[in-house]
Amino acid sequence: MSNSIDLHEHSAHSHGGAHHHRDDLGAKIGMWLFLFTEVILFGGLFLLYFSYRVKYSHDFHLAAKELNVVVGTLNTGILLTSSLTMALSILALTKRQKTLSLVFLGATIACAFGFLYNKYFEWGAKIHHGIYPGSEKLAEREHGEVVFFGLYYSMTGLHTFHVIVGIIFLTFFGIQIIRDKIRFDYYSKLENVGLYWHLVDLIWIFLFPLFYLLH
Amino acid sequence: MSNHNEHAEEHKHTIGYGTYTIIWFALLALTAVTVAVAGINLGEYTLFVAMVVAAIKAMIVINVFMHIKFDDLIVKWLLGFCGFIFAVMFLFLAFDVLLRY
Q1: Rounded to whole angstroms, how far apart are CA atoms B35 and B89?
Q2: Could you give the domains of chain A?
Q3: Is the dihedral of CA A63, A65, A68, A72 positive or negative?
Q4: Res A14 pLDDT > 60
Q5: What's the burial of A105, exposed, middle or buried (CB within 10 Å: 0-12/13-18/19+)?
Q6: I want to staple A89 with a disulfide (CB 3.0 to 4.6 A). Which of A80, A104, A137, B88 is the partner?
């Protein structure tokens, strides 16, 4: 068993080395650079949130009371769990436990869908109550509350978009693991999508208290 | 030969299943803390306390899940640079906003 793996590894090395240029560190730096543009993208929105919160402190507190803390907390737990399974998926793959790696990756994707499911009902309830950008009911409220819900929809919306993109990439790389395109000795793609996934989690860590925990 | 050394080094830096699980528990506990603290009226410190706990959680995720602790110096510098830029942006905005209202 170990012999065949060694042979395999050896052939992969000599083969890969001859035809493909591999630069795992370069790929990682590229990924981090992309993540920094993401930080600045969301950072700009956080700065906007900060200035409006200072200006409409009272309205923000009033509006935030309508958000469901239980759903917000649940989604925080779900995303933190998905971050754990993402890290475990990479760890399992490096330990040559391919099936276990796929199980953890599947759990990560399942968590992501769970997050979307909760978001769907959360937004659905809000829209049902007439709270959505451009609604007449919302326009009757205080200006600060309108701004709060505008920021709520744009920031959590942009975050949810990132979750959807994450699901697509995680699924795509899961297929590559099945096909041995990503393996224990060549997993920088999985590592980099992991970095992206943790960033999605990181952004939610800040979004959650800023929107749901204003009492 | 050098290849083997690299592999040995990689293994030394690998975080195990147990550590990841403990970190996950810690993150969940910190979430429970923020939710609990939000119930207490801290007045103008509410935002500050929530952000401190969020920052602690972020540091844990970056260091453990994102492996920055074991990464090359260049990645650490890049992260520091990005943080610095954001801090400058925030600082100048804060001067303006806080003195205005």
Answers
A1: 29
A2: 22-212 (1.20.120.80)
A3: positive
A4: no
A5: buried
A6: A104
CB contact under 8 A, A40 and B20: no
- A141 lies within 8 A of chain B by CB: no
Tell me if residue A186 falls in helix, strand or coil.
strand
CA distance A172 to A186: 16
pLDDT in tens, A16-40: 444 567 899 999 999 999 999 999 9
Please enumerate in sequence order all residues whose Cβ is within 8 A of that of B10, keeping only pairs 6 or more positions apart, or say none: A94
Kindly provide the b/e burial profile for residues A7-38, where b requires at least 16 CB atoms within 10 angstroms of the residue's own CB.
eeeeeeeeeeeeeeeeeeeeebbebbeebbeb
* pLDDT number for residue A10: 44
| 3-state helix, strand and coil shares in percent for chain A, rounded to the nearest 5 | 85, 0, 15
ipTM of this complex: 0.86
- State the smallest CA–CA distance between residue A84 and chain B in angstroms: 6
How far, in Å, CA of B32 to CA of B78, rounded?
32
Cα four-point dihedral sign A114, A74, A212, B54? negative
d(CA A146, CA A132): 9
**What residue in B sits closest to A37 (Cα-Cα)?**
B82
Candidates B14, B27, B37, B100: best to mutate against A (most CBs of A within 10 A) is B27
Q: Which amino acid does the sequence have at A55?
A: K
DSSP letter at B63 equals I
Distance CA B23, CA B27 (A): 6
Closest-approach residue (CA) in chain A for B10: A94
Higher pLDDT, A11 or A96: A96
Q: What is the pTM of this model?
A: 0.88
Round to whole Å and give the CA distance between A191 and A207. Answer: 25
